[in-house]
Amino acid sequence: MPLVGTLRRPARLPVAAGRAALATDLAEVAREMEARRDLAQSVFARTGMKFSPAEGGCFLFADISPLTAGERDCTGFVRDLLDRAGVLLVPGASFFSDPARGEQYVRIAFNRRAETLREAEQRIAAAS
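That's the Aminotransferase class I/II-fold pyridoxal phosphate-dependent enzyme sequence above. Prediction below.
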């Protein structure tokens, strides 16, 4: 026999308040993540990387071929950037079933504090 239940009126009020607070918090988090995404795109676009706008998640996939001219793979690029600037990205080849298809990409996390993204920009500029 299936169970059917309803909330009594007094119990519905805290549930409604919780939903409203959660919706407000989620909207604020979404705005913050959009701002971080835009900042990360701006920071790394100035290096010459090319992007397709991120439409979900908290990562950017950047095409590094304008920077490497085929001279380095993504792993070499990531190592070089880490050695020169102390900025760590993730080699894109790791995200493809055929790693060769991802050799021109890196993954950038933008779920970092804005200050961290700005520091990455300063370090990259200083190392260039």
